[in-house]
Specification:
Shape: globular
Largest sheet: none
Radius of gyration: 22 Å
Helix content: over 70%
Strand content: under 5%
Length: 381
């Protein structure tokens, strides 16, 4: 059951663990009786070292571009100043609908995996957690946002952590399948730009297919009820009985999170596709705001490339995304360097910097609501 600490029906009233918190602190939150004696400052949480390092990296990268590359910063600034504010505002609004669609998808997966006696997750709560997961990815190294989101849901609902991770694995499989389809649709329109980029797209699609196939095999193994313990019997035979039972239980929870969550694949795939289309629409609106003319296939490909480049384990893919998108724009288009730089800066301001700002605001609001509902609470948010 959900643990409520405040009656707020909108922002929620659940604790929001710090994405930059230590493992020790998260352990304390799972065991309140072992809570640290001194409360953790909310300022230190939001403006933590990972956040500061992330922003410092962004500034250092922009400084590198400005000083080492042949750029006309005055022309870039002029391009930014001439951007259509209406299209920019619309791009921001459309971008944040992706959290709603992805939240609906995750809610569907969570509820499919839930036991009959468990309370069902809410759409708005799931959308909040997806945003907080992106926020964690934006300020923390090693892309810990998914693990943070799983822990956040586990702490609030008391659902098994491993089962929650299983639903996120299902999410990633659906995303991989969607990206393969979108890349396949783009390929005929992009390969004409050069052999190198065609090979890059083909290799990317092949990699995603391999990940998808591995995930299907893994889920298939985990989904064999009668063969679950038999498959791992040789592996577990040398473990103590108690540890072996614990491991098998976690495997069964993972199976519930994957197999059970995929009861409604068409609807889950639809919500995921709408989330991707929102991101594609964001980039399209940014190009319109800057008065740039890019083909629909190229916009789709650049959106997917943006997502793949964020897999680099820096906060929000900082450095890799900017350099990668800039290089692709120069290779695949006739845009000038200032125009390409302006496009990258505006799109990243919406998809990266704004997520840090809105995520931090949401984090603080949830923490304040928890404090209002439980004045004795000094840890956790």
């Amino acid at each position: 059951m959900w643990r409520r600490t405040s009656p707020s029906p909108c922002l929620g009233s659940y604790s929001s663990p710090d994405p930059a918190a230590s493992v020790e602190e998260l352990t304390f939150r799972l065991h309140p009786d072992q809570a640290p004696s001194r409360p953790v400052s909310i300022v230190r949480r939001v403006f933590s070292l990972p956040t500061l390092v992330s922003l410092a990296l962004a500034g250092a990268f922009l400084a590198f571009l400005a000083t080492r590359l042949d750029m006309d910063l005055a022309e870039t600034w002029q391009q930014l100043r001439s951007a259509n504010p209406f299209y920019l505002l619309l791009a921001v609004i459309i971008h944040y609908t992706t959290f709603f669609f992805r939240g609906l998808r995750w809610r569907l997966l969570l509820n499919n995996a839930a036991h009959p006696d468990e309370e069902r997750a809410g759409a708005f709560q799931c959308a909040q957690m997806v945003l907080l997961g992106w926020f964690a990815n934006s300020v923390a190294w090693l892309r810990l946002g998914d693990a943070y989101r799983a822990y956040l849901y586990h702490e609030e609902s008391r659902a098994p952590f491993v089962r929650t991770v299983g639903t996120i694995v299902s999410e990633r499989l659906l995303d991989a399948a969607t990206m393969v389809v979108l890349l396949a649709l783009c390929l005929p329109f992009i390969v004409g730009a050069g052999l190198g980029i065609g090979l890059t797209i083909t290799a990317t699609a092949a990699g995603l297919l391999a990940i998808l196939l591995a995930g299907v095999i893994l889920i298939g193994i985990a989904g064999r009820r009668e063969g679950l313990s038999g498959f791992f019997q040789a592996l577990l035979s040398w473990l103590p009985d108690r540890l072996s039972s614990w491991f098998v239980q976690r495997l069964r929870q993972f199976r519930e999170g994957t197999i059970q969550s995929l009861k409604s694949v068409p609807l889950a795939a639809l919500w995921g596709l709408l989330g991707w289309l929102a991101e594609i629409a964001r980039l399209y609106l940014v190009t319109q705001a800057l008065g740039l003319d890019l083909s629909a296939a190229l916009i789709v490909f650049l959106t997917l490339a943006n997502s793949l480049l964020t897999l680099v384990p820096t906060p929000g893919g900082i450095g890799a995304v900017e350099a990668g998108l800039g290089g692709l724009l120069k290779q695949l288009t006739t845009l000038s360097t200032p125009a390409a730089l302006a496009l990258v800066l505006v799109d990243r301001a919406i998809s990266y910097l704004s997520v840090i700002v809105t995520g931090a605001i949401l984090f603080v609001l949830r923490w304040l609501l928890r404090r209002r509902g439980n004045p004795q609470s000094g840890t956790g948010a």
